Amino acid sequence: MSTINIDLPNKDIDLKKCWSFHDIYESFEVHARTQLPFYDMLHEMLATIIHSYIHLCGEVIDVGCANGNLFKVYKNIYGSSGVYWYHLEDESKYSPPYEKLTTKHLVDTAQDVFSDEYKDGADKYQVIVANLTLSFIDPKERSSLIEAMKQKLAKGGALIIVDKFFAPEARLATVYRNLMWAHKVQQNVSGNDIVQKEMSLIGVQTPLEIEDCWGMERFFQYGEFIGFIHEA
Q1: HSE of 140 in the Cβ direction (CA atoms, 13 Å)?
Q2: What share of the chain is helix, strand, coil (3-state, %, to 5)?
Q3: Are 176 and 165 within 8 A, CB to CB?
Q4: 193 in helix, strand or coil?
Q5: What is the pLDDT of residues 29-81, one digit of tens each?
Q6: CATH number, position 36
Q7: Quick check: is 10 in a domain?
Q8: What is the pLDDT of residue 195?
């Protein structure tokens, strides 16, 4: 009988460690592709969707832009003329070198930007995109933030949300998890690293509920990751 060697989790896993974007900034693109099989396709899809809602001199806010990859993809495909692209992210070394609205912590900044007082409350944006961001925001803050973003859309504009959602039933949750873990194994991510990542996200990332995007149009799904559009 043949023997199968399995890389089992061991004592090297640190249960006290919390996941942080700061820790993976330098290798973020590689990290994202090993974790998310749809990463490149999704960004190309988002670039075209965003472009479809932009009129001349349109304004886009990228909420939780990380290293600014979505703008890079958009620029490579459609160029950057005729669009004002604002990055909304924590003020830190990894904020991309583009025009930013950032002044402090992401959640506080987002609340400022989408409040009635910001810029005299007159600004309306053609596109607001929150790509893989809201699940890292405290659930009690989400509903008000989503509603505030809707209110800041110009007529004909769109709010785009892509994120991790709770599965509607237990069996599907297991299937979705298997889908993601199988991809990671195929990308040579070790069993230890898979478990470490999952454990480090506890208390840091909380998936959304489908009800958070009630009334929006679903345009994308890969397992537990779903994309919705709200049109103004």
Answers
A1: 0
A2: 45, 20, 35
A3: no
A4: helix
A5: 677 788 888 999 999 999 999 999 998 778 898 988 877 889 889 999 998 87
A6: 3.40.50.150
A7: no
A8: 75
pTM of the complete model beyond 0.85? no
Given the structure tokens 């890389």, which residue do they identify? 7
> Torsions phi, psi of 17, nearest 5?
-80, 135
Residue 216, CA atoms < 13 Å, CB-side half-sphere: 22
Count of domains forming the chain? 1
Decide: 211 and 205 in contact? Cβ < 8 Å. Answer: no
C-alpha pair distances (Å), 228 with each of 83, 89, 141, 214: 22, 21, 19, 9
- At 226, which amino acid appears? I
Q: Both tokens of residue 92?
A: 């830190």
The residue written with tokens 């990228």 in the block is: 62
Per-residue pLDDT tens over the stretch 134-164: 998 889 988 988 998 998 899 999 999 999 9
**163 in any annotated domain:** yes
The verdict on residue 15 lying in a domain is no
Tell me which residue range forms the domain holding 68.
21-231
